[in-house]
Amino acid sequence: MIFLRNAVSVNFNDRTGLIIVIVMAAAVFAAVIYSFVSYHRRLQSGQGIRDEEAPVLQKYATVLQKEIVKENTGTMYRPEHRVEFRVKFRYEDGTEIDMIVPPDVYEKIPVGFTDLLITQNGEFLDFGERFGR
């Protein structure tokens, strides 16, 4: 601490150093608590978890719209991108859901078409039992 005191030429006393240590420890503690809480919330909601034992949901839905989203993820010197094929469905009860589907499925699903949408953990499995996923 003496070297730091002379190099920066700021007068730190023992109390200031103690306060800095306490603030840093509190920040680390808060980050650990936040990571546990957010992990627990994801577990509760089922997001980010691939569970083969999760129930497979089958509901009739209508295709409302289709959209191809291209997102640039690289840098100016190393450009990269990610393409998502999104389809918006509306269930019979009026709720809507956006799903990312494979490119071959995207091309074969017409807008306005109603059929059985099959999902698991919020992920697309099949539409009309024709893709066999």
From the alpha-carbon coordinates, what is the Rg to the nearest angstrom?
26 Å
Strand proportion: 25-35%
Dominant shape:
elongated
Q: How many helical elements? A: 3
**Strand runs, count:** 5
Notable features of this structure?
133 residues, alpha+beta, 5-stranded antiparallel beta sheet, 5 strands
Task: Give your account of this protein's structure.
This protein is of the alpha+beta class and 133 residues long. It has 3 helices and 5 strands; from the N terminus they run ααβββαββ. The chain has helices at 2-8, 14-45, 103-108, and strands spanning 56-72, 81-91, 96-101, 114-120, 123-127. It has a 5-stranded antiparallel β-sheet. The longest helix has 32 residues, at 14-45. It is elongated, with a radius of gyration of 26 Å.
